Amino acid sequence: MTETSNEKVIEKELSFGPVHPALIEPYRIRLFVNDEIVEDCEININMAYRGIEKLLDGIPVEKALIITERICGICSHVHAWNSVRVIEGGLGIEVPERANYIRVLTQEFQRITSHLIFFGHAFEVIGHETLSMRAFLLREQFMDLLQYLGGNRVMPSVPIIGGIRPRADLTESLKKTILDRCDAFEDKYANYVQRVLDDPLVISRINGIGLLTKEDAIKYHATGPTGRASGWRYDLRADMNEYKPFDFNIIVLDGCDTKDRVVDRALEVVESLKIIRQIVKNIPEGPVVNRNWVAKEMPFTTAYSESYRGELMHTYGLDHQGLVRNYQVRTPTITNLAAMEHACIGDHVTEAILTIASCDPCLTCCTRAEVVESGKSRTMTDYEIVRKYGWRR
Amino acid sequence: MTVDASVFFIARLVVSSVIALVIATLYSLVLPGIERKIQARIQQRVGPPILMPGFWSVIKFTYKSKTEPIAQMPRLYKFLIGFGIGVVSLLLLFNTPYWWFVLGWGSILGIAGMLKLEEVLYVFMGSQSQSVLSTSMPVPDTVKGSKWPDIRREFNEQHSAERALKMMLIGSLPLYLALIVPFLVARSVNISAVVFAQNPAYYPFTSWLSFSLPTNPVLFTVPGFIAAIVYFLGFVIILNEKPFSILKAKVDLIEGGVLEYAANLRAGYYVMRNLLMFALSSMFVTLFLGIPFDPFMPAMLLLNMVLSLILPIALSVLVAFSPIFTFRQIYPTAIGLSALGVLAMILAVSI
């Protein structure tokens, strides 16, 4: 038993991962507990660095976009889109309005699939397999739509610099299919959510645990539904020009617990459906891509986007040959997990894992470099990597 | 009893035990398949073939290459599986009429004793096992600058043992209370008296073809019905199934104390777990319906086996619709169920 100056008494440590059958990605959780109550938590995410930034360095910008889409398999579109938004903003490339509509459409399709994956994972963590399976079953509707739109379920590759790929343009038959699927999905989804909220066993597991106050959410910069479930009205879509034509609500709840993080996402799916219907009904005619641009030297430019888990940042510059320089990505999980380290204090051990999962973490996307030298490991910043290994030629 | 009669009794006891164990083991290996199939259908999946999760997986594990557990005392850890199968087998045999007359084991005391031994096993298993999946994972946790550098680090399985101890103290109480009710109705501690009270026409050691149905089963009385509900939930608790599977919650403790059982030991664990499920189901039919598991009366045996499906089927439905409870939910549930069990006991005494 250990006692510190702040009089927190810790009986023992329990650690999980990075190899653990219940963790969908490799990370290590250390819980410092008294009996079953978590007194402190430490999460180590540096387990699977893929070197994405290094891969991107020094390659033509068009090629770089193929790689950025592969940063994440669940939010592939938002990475590709935000990546092109950087160069479009930096070089002032005009994007046709129709292309923006289709980009938003793909974004909302994936938001729905991402939130349904979250339900699938969260209910798996709770131990409710049936609700988990149903979530994946519901998700299939929108995975199909992504395939119809982009040609691929996971990597639809819709955005390109200056617009979208022409094959991802909306046809009349696809519009009808989307509306039909949305109608069919909405009924089933409403039943699903109602069933979750009416189930006293499930509610008893998620209600009142993982408390994260608004002040803490702001302090740790818990973005996306994680922050909004703590009463923090922060959604970048409200400020993005691409979302200006659409009428939708930003879901903000003030329960600050795991239940509200689930409910927030559940309600966001309904808002996404609302946006999708508006897009299909109001999409303007016209070209879908502007090819009048040339890759040239571009100062470091940053673009922010509201991905499905929160705020996403991409930043890079182009040299005089139009090659990518010093690409940096910051995904929402990095700050959300820090918030969850704090939120799980006071939970039971089994609940703490659920609390951590309730920010919908995506570990491999957010992991930055780690260098192991002589058996000692330390984390390197992108700047250090560039200094040590130089530009890729 | 003369010497000849004693020898004859012992011979029949041994033969009936062997027949009962063989039939029960084979039958119990089908139960997980039925369980999984029902859950899959509820989840709109096809599910595995019926024999796959129980029967074929046990056979598969028996010829997998063996791995030595990293337990503190590996030989003891391995022995616990054999011990567990022995305990569960005895529990099952208490359903067969010949064992009702052996040393008074065929009584509430014998049943409760075996169940407690089975529960204690998980405490021993948990305190022994030290898999690589938690503390001994080669990750630099205790580096300079660590938040809590000198803290006691515990294996997940040891935490599971602590949870098993809590479940022994509080979680399993409802099952024992529910078990007492049929004995209270029969005003006896012996299983034979419970069965004869419900099924007066039944008399063991008669012809192979004889068959008798119970006339006044405990299940169809008010205290019996309440006790049956409590027994079912106690059955779920003692099997460590959802929603009471906290000591092997996949999300944190993975498999709990049984984590390091691999290959033939894993097969043994599955046999133990499935046999326990059947033993408790069969016990329910014996005590609450008055139909014993009599290997020398095929009709009674078959009826017991068919009715023994009630609890596993109900269990699979419950598992499909339940999350895992933490102790926040388990304590009030166990207390509520225990209160219900006490109510059933009071009603049983008053009828």
CATH class placement of the domain at 63-302 in chain A = Mainly Alpha
Biggest beta-sheet profile of chain B: none
Number of β-strand runs of chain B: 1
Tally of strands of chain A: 12
Q: Could you tell me the mean pLDDT of chain A?
A: 87
CATH topology of the domain at 63-302 in chain A: Cytochrome-c3 Hydrogenase, chain B
Radius of gyration of chain B from CA coordinates: 21 Å
Unreliable residue stretches of chain B: none
Largest sheet of chain A: 3 strands, antiparallel
Element string of chain A (H = helix, E = strand): EEEEEHHHHHEEHHHHHEEEHHHEEH
Global mean pLDDT of chain B: 90
* Number of H- or I-type helical stretches of chain B: 13
Which outline of chain A best applies? globular
How would you describe what is shown here?
Chain A has 14 helices and 12 strands. Chain A has a domain of 240 residues: Cytochrome-c3 Hydrogenase, chain B (Orthogonal Bundle). The longest helix of chain A is centred in the N-terminal third of the chain and has 30 residues. In chain A, α3 runs antiparallel to α4, α4 runs antiparallel to α5 and α4 runs antiparallel to α10. In chain A, β11 and β12 form a beta hairpin. With 393 residues, chain A is of the alpha+beta class. In chain A, the strands form 5 sheets. In chain A, strands 3-4-5 form a 3-stranded antiparallel β-sheet. A 3-stranded antiparallel β-sheet of chain A has the order 8-9-10. By secondary structure, chain B is mainly α. Chain B has one domain. Chain B is built from 13 helices and 1 strand, in the order αααααβαααααααα. The radius of gyration of chain B is 21 Å and the shape is globular. The model of chain B has no long low-confidence stretch (mean pLDDT 90). Classes of the chains: A alpha+beta (393), B mainly alpha (351). Chains A and B meet through β3, β4, β5, α4 and α5 of A and β1, α6 and α13 of B.
